[in-house]
């Protein structure tokens, strides 16, 4: 890539160490895959292009679907029936988007297992999510709400065997 564009690259001491995952893939895994299929690099590039287009489509669908959300500082609500009517991939994205909206900051993604638990909430059910967010299914809505610091501290104390 760099040579084709007349650019130079820089070699550092870690580039040839398979200790790092990116190098292990480049130095060990890719050569083995190329022996099995000399076209593996082209096929992986095609798959990446397909996935990028699918990601664009899902992002646009997520943006449209989020118009049904009610957002306020520290809280997000979404009609459960509308959420349930969406394809599974979009439901998962919507839960994560609502959670990020409540957190109002760029945070680590919500774990897959937690998203699945939110989607499986029974009417009246609730669960605590990362970042001090509580998810509830109430009155036909999925409600995500940031918990006050005092409530979080009580929960932490209780989980440590305190009061």
State the end-to-end distance.
61 Å
Structural class: alpha+beta
The description of the largest β-sheet is: 5 strands, antiparallel
Number of strands: 5
Q: What number is the mean pLDDT?
A: 90
Question: Measured on Cα atoms, how large is the radius of gyration?
Answer: 22 Å
Low-confidence regions: none
- Which strand order do you get reading across the main beta sheet? 1-2-5-4-3
Strand content: 5-15%
Helicity, as a percent range: 40-55%
Order of helices and strands: HHEEHHHEEEH
Number of helices: 6
The coarse overall form would be elongated
Give the key terms:
163 residues; alpha+beta; five-stranded antiparallel sheet
Strand and helix map with partners:
Elements: H1 21-36, H2 40-65, E1 70-72, E2 75-79, H3 80-85, H4 88-103, H5 112-119, E3 126-129, E4 133-138, E5 141-146, H6 149-159
Antiparallel strand pairs: 1-2, 2-5, 3-4, 4-5
Helix pairs in contact: 2-4, 4-5
What does this structure look like?
51% of the residues lie in helices and 15% in strands. It has 6 helices and 5 strands, in the order ααββαααβββα. It has helices at residues 21-36, 40-65, 80-85, 88-103, 112-119, 149-159, and strands spanning 70-72, 75-79, 126-129, 133-138, 141-146. The model has no long low-confidence stretch (mean pLDDT 90).
How do you describe this structure in short?
The protein has six helices and five strands; from the N terminus they run H-H-E-E-H-H-H-E-E-E-H. By secondary structure, it is α+β, with helices and mostly antiparallel strands. Helix 2 packs across helix 4 and helix 4 (88-103) packs across helix 5 (112-119).
């Amino acid at each position: 890539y760099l040579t084709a564009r007349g650019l130079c690259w820089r070699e550092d001491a870690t580039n040839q160490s398979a200790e790092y995952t990116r190098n292990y893939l480049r130095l060990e895994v890719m050569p083995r895959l190329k022996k099995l299929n000399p076209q593996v690099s082209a096929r992986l590039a095609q798959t990446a292009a397909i996935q990028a287009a699918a990601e664009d489509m899902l992002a646009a669908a997520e943006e449209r679907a989020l118009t049904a959300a009610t957002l306020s500082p520290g809280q997000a609500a979404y009609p459960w029936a509308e959420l349930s009517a969406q394809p599974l991939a979009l439901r998962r994205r919507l839960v994560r988007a609502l959670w990020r909206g409540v957190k109002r900051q760029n945070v680590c993604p919500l774990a897959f297992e937690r998203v699945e638990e939110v989607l499986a909430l029974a009417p009246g059910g609730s669960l605590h999510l990362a970042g001090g967010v509580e998810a509830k299914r109430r009155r036909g809505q999925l409600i995500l709400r940031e918990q006050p610091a005092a409530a979080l501290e009580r929960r932490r104390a209780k989980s440590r065997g305190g009061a």
